[in-house]
Amino acid sequence: MSGTGTEVGKTVVAAAIARTLAIEGRRVAVFKPAVTGLDDPGEPDHALLRRAAGSTQADEEIAPYRYGPPASPHLAAALAGERIDPGRLRTTAAEAGARAEALVCEGVGGLLVPLAPGYLVRDLAVDIGLPLAIAASPGLGTINHTLLTVEAARGAGLEVSLVVLTPWPDDPGEIERSNRETIAELAGVRPVTLPPLDLRDPDSWPALRAPARS
Ligand SMILES: Nc1ncnc2c1ncn2[C@@H]1O[C@H](COP(=O)(O)OP(=O)(O)OP(=O)(O)O)[C@@H](O)[C@H]1O
Ligand SMILES: [Mg+2]
After folding, report:
1. Which partner for 52 in 19, 78, 153, 172 could form a disulfide, CB atoms 3.0-4.6 Å apart?
2. Which residues contact 189 (CB under 8 A, 6 or more apart)?
3. Strands 114-116 and 119-120
């Protein structure tokens, strides 16, 4: 699970996917390599993911690196006098997946965000090897951001299984509807849409799955 950047709805989309799998009866684990911004108020990503998945994982089993400042992960780690260890990320994700029937991972920022020297979020996505969902905004600017992300993913051999436009307005305008069609045409994946959700109540969320391939 990645996105076109930061604050585009990755956590919401990952949580909706995790919820859908849990409702289907699967034991779901969640993973996020690093969470930053714990100094800010609000529910942190790993907590929303855990709640949506109905998981009992401890914080460190979901997100092995957690930092207070709202900085990119390599900088937040440096400010704490640490370095993110890619091997620890791979091990934590593998252990989470081994104890569950489905694993949903959220990236950090976009695909080209560095986690450690010489190791990007995209490298971790390749190492984990799951099909990729991309969260994107429905509005102006999203065509370029989404196509860049799809190209960066495919360039590394990742399979883009899903593009999700979120939050999709109840009454979409010309721009939103046209963006969806344009991305479908140019990316070769028809975006699905996710309406505004009440994040307090995962039971009220609609199912979110990759569309069947034609
Ligand atoms: N479908 C939706 N329903 C409700 N809120 C949404 C929806 N999509 C996005 N949002 C809102 O947009 C904001 C960003 O979403 P989210 O936290 O999922 O982004 P992110 O890409 O995970 O951010 P980060 O880079 O910090 O991890 C949040 O305030 C979230 O509540
Ligand atoms: Mg997030």
Report:
1. 19
2. 150, 160, 162, 163, 183
3. antiparallel
- For the CA of 192, the nearest ligand: 1
Dihedral, CA atoms, 126, 4, 159, 45, nearest 10 degrees? 60
Atom of ligand 1 nearest to the CA of 8: 21
Identify the residue whose tokens are 């998981």: 55
HSE-CB of 85 using CA atoms within 13 angstroms: 7
pTM: 0.97
State the Cα–Cα distance between residues 125 and 121, nearest whole angstrom: 6
Q: What is residue 193's three-state secondary structure?
A: strand
On whether the CB atoms of residues 10 and 194 are closer than 8 A, the answer is no
The tokens for 158 are 């990742």
Ligand nearest, relative to CA of residue 4 = 1
Q: Mark whether 10 is an active-site residue.
A: no
Q: Render pLDDT for 90-136 as a digit per residue (tens, 0 to 9).
A: 999 999 999 999 999 999 999 999 999 999 999 999 999 999 999 99
* Closest CA relative to residue 132, chosen from 114, 113, 110, 100: 110
List the one residue out of 155, 35, 30, 166 whose CA is nearest residue 105.
30
